[in-house]
Amino acid sequence: MITVCGGSITRMTHQQTPWRTLHVPTHTDPRGSLTVAEADTLPFDIRRVYWLHHISDGAGRGAHATFGSEQVIVPAHGAFTITVSDGGGSSETLRLDDPGYGLWLGSGVWRDLTDFTDGAVVLVMSSTLYADTEYVRDYAAYLERVAAR
Questions:
Q1: What is the CATH number of the domain that holds 66?
Q2: Are residues 78 and 97 in contact, defined by beta-carbon separation less than 8 angstroms?
Q3: Is 64 a catalytic residue?
Q4: Total domains, the chain
Q5: Which of 104, 112, 113, 141 has the greatest number of C-beta atoms within 10 Å?
Q6: What is the pLDDT along the chain (149 residues), one digit of tens a residue?
Q7: What are phi and psi of 108, to 5 degrees?
Q8: How far is the C-alpha of 75 from the C-alpha of 96, rounded, in Å?
Q9: Can you spell out the DSSP letters for 1-13?
Q10: Catalytic residue of the set 27, 54, 64, 77
Q11: Is 30 among the domain residues?
């Protein structure tokens, strides 16, 4: 695993991957920190924002890929592990624990989120509005779709 500002990553990459970590500008003073995501800090225009919270102990989230949208996933509070795959041999496992960093996912990236700390909040910014038709939730079907590209 490789650390992302306190977290870690396992890298199994054979080519340019459709994901990367992003630094989100953070301003800190004696009162605390303020992290800001604006149009010039993200690789897309934000169309939707949602967050995961009150996650049950031992629960996993994600277990899907989206086609047609980009997303940035940020550990707004606490930490979690995310495993991403392009379905073609490249994958990484990252431990995200710093709200000043996010993970950009391009279209078609499979993701599994696990190992949430107590009280973790996951913030997701998306380039599209929700459309159930862009989600693939079965890994075998995902691999078939990637192979057909």
A1: 2.60.120.10
A2: yes
A3: yes
A4: 1
A5: 113
A6: 343 444 444 444 445 789 999 999 999 999 999 999 988 889 999 999 999 999 999 999 999 999 999 999 999 999 999 999 999 999 999 999 999 999 999 999 999 999 999 999 999 999 999 999 999 999 999 999 999 98
A7: 85, 15
A8: 6
A9: --EETT--EEEE-
A10: 64
A11: no
On whether residue 77 sits in a domain, the answer given is yes
Task: Give the residues across from 105 on adjacent strands.
Answer: 19, 71
Give pLDDT, residue 16. Answer: 78
134 part of a folded domain: yes
Structure-token pair, residue 51: 């967050």
Report the alpha-carbon distance of residue 101 to residue 137 in Å, rounded: 26
On whether residue 48 sits in a domain, the answer given is yes
**What is the structure's pLDDT at 40?**
86
- Using an 8 Å Cβ cutoff, are 128 and 134 in contact? yes
| Structure tokens belonging to residue 15 | 């080519």
- Among residues 7, 116, 102, the alpha carbon closest in space to that of 59 is found at 116
